Amino acid sequence: MSKLLDDIVREFSRLPGVGRRTALRLSMQVLRWREGDVAEFVRAVSDFRTGIRHCARCNNLSDNELCDVCANPNRDRSTVCVVEQVGDVMSIEKTGQYRGLYHVLGGVISPMSGIAPSDLKIDLLTENIASGAIREVILAISTTVEGETTLFYILNRLKQFEGLKITTIARGIGFGDEIEYADELTISHALANRREVEKAD
């Protein structure tokens, strides 16, 4: 195999879920592009990596200090939907059913993967709640073992806020499923049928 081809296949293979066969297919597709398209692709990747920021309020990805959702004055600032990843925000926004704010944790607690609670943006969440404007927190976390562990940890952290309504999305999303891959109708029903969670003593 050509060293140049081997190099690009190796780089594409570093992406999650991309094996060597898929990486080879992607590489051959890039070879069919016009030089201008390749240059635009490389520029977009470089600009994204160097220019993207995390929203100071919710940890979502943004071009500015605040993401589009947090900067929108028409969003309901009394409700915050806590999700694992940016992809979850995108999935929920597609439904058009939710008008509150978000909080992106940046993952879930996973000792096997070396992810501790301190690696997530849970402190930022509690700081936002302590400001006093938030009345409901919706926990929209995947129903995996790691997701459930994260949910219970957050519930324990939120016990300090008296009068705070805590709900989880209805379990229309099956156990072991990830929100990012659920269809829009399932997410809509899950949000509409969310239930309040009893705080642990």
Descriptive labels:
single chain; 201 residues; alpha/beta; Helicase, Ruva Protein, domain 3; Dna Topoisomerase Vi A Subunit, Chain: A, domain 2; 2 domains; 5-stranded mixed β-sheet; two-stranded antiparallel sheet; 8 helices
Please explain how this structure is put together:
There is one protein chain. With 201 residues, this protein is α/β, with parallel strands linked by helices. It folds into two domains: 3-51, Helicase, Ruva Protein, domain 3 (Orthogonal Bundle), CATH 1.10.8; 54-196, Dna Topoisomerase Vi A Subunit, Chain: A, domain 2 (3-Layer(aba) Sandwich), CATH 3.40.1360. The protein is built from eight helices and seven strands; from the N terminus they run αααββαβαβαβαβαβ. It has helices at 3-13, 20-32, 35-51, 68-71, 86-95, 122-130, 145-158, 184-192; strands spanning 53-54, 61-62, 76-83, 100-104, 136-139, 165-168, 195-196. The strands form two sheets. It has a five-stranded mixed sheet. The chain has a two-stranded antiparallel ribbon with strand order 1-2. Helix 1 (3-13) packs across helix 2 (20-32). The longest helix has 17 residues, at 35-51. The mean pLDDT is 90.
